[in-house]
Each structure stands twice: as structure tokens, then as C-alpha cells.
Fold these 2 entries.
Entry 1:
Amino acid sequence: MRRSALFALVLLPGLAPAAEPAPELAALLKKAGPYRPAASNLAWRQIPWEIDPTAALKAAKDEQRPLLVWLAGGRKRDGSPLERC
């Protein structure tokens, strides 16, 4: 009996239908719609960024494309690309 009750407690929440978002959230998302960027403006997110410089150089040579290098940090900085306020 205890085993079936435990099974029901674990299984039942997964069978419940997904809850609708709160009305305030739905209204906010509707208002934000015109200001959200289009998919064409987010194409830069599809760029395959590389962390390893040798892998990036090899990929650039194989594809015969230029290599963009973004360096951050420097003297008295921890390597964060954004400076602290």
C-alpha cells in the first residue's frame, strides 16, 4: 500500500496538464511582442564560437574564412570582457 501511494505521488504531478501562465505574465509578453527582436536580428547567435585558439585557426583555414579574435582582460583585470561599474 505504501509503495503504490508513493508511486502515485511521484507519477501524478507529471500527468497534470501544464498550467497557463499568470495573466500578468501573458499581458506583459503581449506588450513586449513588438519590441522583441526578429529572428533575422539574432543570426549572430548561430555563429559557432570557439574557445580553443588552435581549433578556431584550423576551422578558419579549412573553411577559408577570416578569424575574429576577441581578447579581454589585461593589466589589473580578471579577464572579464565587461568592466565593472
Note: The chain has three helices and no strands.
Entry 2:
Amino acid sequence: MSSEHITRLRRESRPDDPIGKFVKEAAAEADNRVARATAGPLPTEAEAEILAASAHEPVRLYSQVLITDLESGEQATYRIVPEGEASFERGDLSISSAIGRALLMEYPGAVVAVQAPGGRRLFRILRVEG
């Protein structure tokens, strides 16, 4: 859907109309997704290559996710699993962990903020598989 089409739908939608409310909520979520995808510093050339080759699927339960720490530049791969299956040694993060919650339903390119014990950290999602 083009940005012109979305703008027209926003303008013509009435807030008291159920469809108008749905359109406005969907447009707001799209705006938020774009804001998260453009947050933080620009991707490095290596990150941009990974993003370009990545399928554009959101992070879900059992997804394998490649992320980069925007402060240190370190990359890590994690799999998002239910709480009882988490094992940091295997790279399995619980869906209820701070990072797991932040990554859930985000797309490659998004920058997510995680409140870690050492303070707030920013991660960019580079690839989502599964």
C-alpha cells in the first residue's frame, strides 16, 4: 500500500467508524515500525548486506534472530523459546526475558531498546529465520 493511499485513508476515516478506527490503528503501527527501523545509527555496510539478504519476517516464537549490539558492534544469534526451554549456553532466550520481549514481532532492520541490569542497550535486528 502506498503512502499516498495510507494518507488518503487516514484523512477519509472517521474515528467513530469501526473500520476508520482499524485504519488509524494500522497506520499508527506502520508509523511506529518505520520509526523503529530508522532509529539508531545507520547500518554498517556489512549489516546492510545482511539486511538486504534477509527475509522480511517478524520475530516469533522459535525464530532464530541475528542481532548486533549498537554500542559494542558485537553480533549474536539467539533463538526465542518458551520460558521453560531457555538456555543461554545454547543461545535460547526466553520469550519472557527482556531481550526476548523486545525482539518479539519486530522485523529485520528494527532497533530495539532493552533495559538490562547494566543499563539501557540498543540492538539492531539483522536477520530472522524460522
Note: The longest strand covers residues 119-129.
